[in-house]
């Protein structure tokens, strides 16, 4: 529980039990380096977080890491990388400009600025990216073959205002009949959707 400004170089380490980081202070991190053990647990970051640079969030199978409060960064040159087969849930509008790379697992996007202001790269091994009714201005690129999905929540409209680059890859969309996806930025380089 954080009630003051504190600085940490790593959070949770290899975690084996569910945990919540909360409070009215600000969590200062040199890098967002999180590793979970894959034991079916949930980890909630319910405190504003300030990153000095990027980092890696490695979420184990069956685990969920929920980032529920605003994340900012003082250095946007290094990416924030999501690895591991588990779920990363981005639940706030964030203010970082770091690139975001999703290389594996599931990412749930709850707000328009959940990815901050940087470019987003979704890799072929990323199993599912769930969009829950958002309007995203970020440039989004897909790499690494078939992207097994953008999955849209029931009854939502999801808008991509930035350029979406398929890089001649195939994108599988899971769009319920009551949902809608709009690519305002266009699909400029071919590919298959």
Structural topology:
Elements: E1 6-8, E2 14-15, E3 19-29, E4 34-36, E5 42-51, E6 55-58, E7 64-67, E8 71-73, E9 80-83, E10 87-90, E11 100-102, E12 105-109, E13 120-123, E14 126-131, E15 135-136, E16 140-143, E17 147-152, E18 157-160, E19 164-165, E20 171-174, E21 180-183
Parallel strand pairs: 1-3, 2-4, 3-5, 4-6, 5-7, 5-8, 6-9, 7-10, 9-11, 10-12, 11-13, 12-14, 13-16, 14-17, 15-18, 16-19, 17-20, 18-21
Short description:
This protein is an all-beta fold.
Could you name the key traits of this structure?
single chain; 193 residues
Protein described:
With 193 residues, the chain is an all-beta fold. Helices cover 0% and strands 48% of the residues. The protein contains no helices and 21 strands. It has strands at 6-8, 14-15, 19-29, 34-36, 42-51, 55-58, 64-67, 71-73, 80-83, 87-90, 100-102, 105-109, 120-123, 126-131, 135-136, 140-143, 147-152, 157-160, 164-165, 171-174, 180-183. Strands 1, 3, 5, 7, 8, 10, 12, 14, 17 and 20 form a 10-stranded parallel beta sheet that branches. The chain is globular. The termini are far apart. The model is unreliable at 1-16 (pLDDT under 50).
* Helix-strand string: EEEEEEEEEEEEEEEEEEEEE
Number of helices: 0
Could you name the ranges where pLDDT drops below 50 across 5 or more consecutive residues?
1-16
Largest sheet: 10 strands, parallel
DSSP, total strands: 21
Radius of gyration: 16 Å
Structural class of the secondary elements? mainly beta
Termini gap: 45 Å
Oligomeric state of the chains in view: single chain
- Portion in helices: under 10%
Strand content: over 45%
Shape: globular
User: What is the averaged pLDDT score?
Assistant: 76
């Amino acid at each position: 529980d954080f009630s003051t400004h504190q600085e940490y170089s790593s959070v949770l380490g290899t975690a084996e039990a569910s945990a919540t980081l909360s409070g009215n202070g600000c969590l200062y991190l040199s890098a967002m380096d999180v590793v979970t053990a894959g034991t079916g647990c949930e980890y909630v970051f319910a405190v504003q977080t300030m990153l000095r640079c990027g980092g890696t969030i490695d979420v184990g199978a069956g685990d969920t890491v929920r980032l529920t409060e605003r994340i900012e960064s003082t250095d946007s040159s290094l990416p924030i990388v999501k690895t591991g087969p588990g779920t990363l849930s981005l639940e706030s509008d964030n203010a970082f400009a770091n690139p975001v790379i999703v290389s594996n697992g599931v990412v749930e996007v709850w707000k328009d600025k959940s990815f901050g202001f940087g470019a987003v790269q979704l890799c072929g091994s990323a199993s599912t990216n769930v969009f829950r009714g958002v309007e995203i201005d970020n440039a989004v690129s897909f790499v690494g073959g078939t992207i097994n999905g953008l999955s849209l929540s029931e009854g939502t409209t999801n808008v991509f205002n930035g350029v979406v680059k398929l890089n001649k890859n195939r994108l599988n969309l899971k769009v319920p009949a009551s949902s809608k996806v709009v690519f305002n930025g266009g699909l400029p380089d071919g590919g298959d959707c």
